[in-house]
């Protein structure tokens, strides 16, 4: 395996980490109207309980995106340039809504007013749903191919990205992250909220299973290989096992299988993409490939040694953080805390 192929795998690994971890963050944020009530019927204690499940880890999860973007820029500058210029508006919208979500987490508790908190809660929902949908649209289009000319420049419009396969990809990530997040709420809470989250995760899981099945079949048909077929089957099986585990009240297993579903689905997309990084729908000769989009061997060598040291440290720190904050967020702990916490 050459260094360019190795770094294609590392980029895939980083995006898997991001979608698995920030994916359930998105799902938790989107669950607020469904589990915490709406308007005058909203329960602030329940909403605080939901938000506190990801309070200690959401910002750490988002750093995977920063690392993935930085590594993409350094290892595949042509891919980075084409992606961020051609997909400028969707990626800008993702960035703005992520900022909106982060600000909402920090400012929600600064005042006790109901309208103040409800306003930031809406921003959390928007800041979770929009990226969850647009990431699926973006990756589906990358795999399907876009209009690249001979200079590797995207000559389409943002509306060209809103094609049936791209929109289906967005629907899959939106539903998958929502189900994954609600499962996490069930895993991390107690009492009525835990029971409500389990019921909602089961219903959302069934819808996700149907939509994801269509997307998986479409992807396997359009980009058939043994690897893509096996990964699609593993993703489907993991989702079924997650739904079944949740139905039996095994939230830990349900969450684990949900994470495996995202892992296999993202790896499947990268497998379908290989050896391209951005196929051209105008002429295959205009496609960006691992070879023509990568940095020099010297750059990749330096990055490889850096990754060899840094990645294990990142994984150890991430694991330690989740271990420290492994306990359930109980309703009693929220009721006993100050209202602004």
UniProtKB/TrEMBL annotation:
Q: How does it sit in the membrane?
A: Multi-pass membrane protein
Question: Where are the membrane-spanning stretches?
Answer: 6-24, 82-103, 124-147, 167-188, 200-218, 224-241, 253-274, 302-325
Q: What subcellular compartments does it reside in?
A: Cell membrane
Sorted keywords for this record are: Cell membrane, Electron transport, Heme, Iron, Membrane, Metal-binding, Transmembrane, Transmembrane helix, Transport
Keyword Transmembrane helix appears in the UniProt entry: yes
Query: What's the family?
Result: Belongs to the cytochrome ubiquinol oxidase subunit 2 family.
| Name by which UniProt lists this protein | Cytochrome c oxidase assembly protein
What phylogenetic lineage does the species belong to?
Bacteria, Bacillati, Actinomycetota, Actinomycetes, Micrococcales
